[in-house]
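Researcher: Sequence recovery benchmark, item below. Answer with residues only.
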């Protein structure tokens, strides 16, 4: 994965996996969905916006209508392997597992690397993938196909 080596650790004294900041952001995207399935395209779009706004993960994206990232794809697969997220039976969508919900709650919400991105995530969470794609194309024209 081309993502930075910066990792997030659970609150002091709590157990849980050590995750990259990108993995934590993906879990926050899934948390904002409140148990609903989230399309991988939508996760990619929100992750790109987080990277553009906060620039902390250094995830690499390929320009297209919906930017795609090998880093985000690998993070989704790792979260599924850790049983923190699950892929839909039809594929192409993810949601937090109960273990994932518990794990994401362990990360300190007062940490600005979580608090500010989560506010942004909640803002974009109810947008359709098409609306996110349009927003990206208008505000970041270098991401057009």
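Model:
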């Amino acid at each position: 994965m081309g993502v930075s080596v910066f990792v997030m650790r659970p609150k002091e004294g709590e157990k849980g996996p050590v995750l990259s900041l990108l993995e934590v952001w993906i879990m926050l995207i899934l948390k904002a969905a409140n148990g609903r399935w989230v399309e991988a395209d939508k996760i990619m779009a929100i992750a790109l916006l987080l990277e553009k706004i906060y620039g902390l993960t250094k995830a690499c994206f390929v320009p297209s209508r919906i930017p795609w990232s090998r880093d985000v794809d690998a993070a989704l697969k790792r979260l599924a392997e850790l049983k923190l997220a699950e892929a839909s039976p039809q594929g192409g969508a993810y949601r937090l597992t109960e273990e994932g919900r518990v794990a994401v709650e362990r990360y300190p919400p007062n940490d600005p690397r979580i608090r500010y991105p989560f506010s942004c995530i909640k803002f974009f969470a109810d947008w359709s993938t098409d609306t996110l794609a349009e927003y990206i194309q208008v505000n970041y024209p270098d991401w057009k196909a």
